[in-house]
């Protein structure tokens, strides 16, 4: 007859730890699947040759098509803080994009024209874009300072005022530099999440083994 008398304190600490390890492993598996779907959506987004086509065709999710056509953008630009390979300023201006239907007013779209590194000030021009929803402000985003042209979050009304534009005409998307797979997807690819999941599951299995071995050694577990 099997015999098992669990140690109260050891069991009290082991069960929550086991639940946590299994939860972390399952979360990593879900994260792997979610990220794989996001990468597939990014790679299937297509390519267009005009900003009008990109806006009028519409898109699902967070990734719009890649735009390779020219951006006839002139006038002032704003410096929007962003983090690429290094921290820096994305130069962002407003460009009029023809309406989808005759008789509708043209829309204004924020367009990134270049990226300046924060320390050296080197500027890299943009030759390819992707359409995305305007980014939401992060919890730790700084406060905008229009007087020094330093912007840390998108504020349509304030940015439109700084550029002398009507905020009602501004589209809820922007054209940012298309630099390939976003860093949020490329930095930790799906196989790495699988490795993390196997690590958590392995620790859970080791915990069960230690728990069982300790009870066997104390004579509290016999098969």
Compact description:
With 223 residues, this protein is an alpha+beta fold. The strands form 2 sheets. Strands 2, 3, 4, 5, 6, 7, 8 and 9 form an 8-stranded mixed beta sheet that branches. The chain has a two-stranded antiparallel ribbon with strand order 1-10.
Main sheet summary:
8 strands, mixed
Beta strand %: 15-25%
Order of helices and strands: EHEHEEEEEEHEHHE
Q: Mind telling me the C-alpha Rg?
A: 26 Å
Q: Runs with pLDDT <50, length 5+?
A: none
Describe the structure.
The protein is an alpha+beta fold and 223 residues long. Helices cover 37% and strands 23% of the residues. The protein contains 5 helices and 10 strands, in the order E-H-E-H-E-E-E-E-E-E-H-E-H-H-E. It has helices spanning 8-43, 51-57, 156-162, 183-186, 190-217; strands spanning 3-4, 47-48, 66-67, 78-83, 87-97, 107-117, 123-125, 129-133, 170-177, 221-222. Strands 2, 3, 4, 5, 6, 7, 8 and 9 form an 8-stranded mixed beta sheet that branches. A hairpin with a 3-residue loop joins strand 4 and strand 5 (87-97). Helix 1 runs antiparallel to helix 5 (190-217). The chain is elongated and about 85 Å long. It starts with a strand and ends with a strand. The model has no long low-confidence stretch (mean pLDDT 87).
Which features would summarize this protein structure in a list?
elongated; 8-stranded mixed β-sheet; alpha+beta; single chain; two-stranded antiparallel sheet; 223 residues
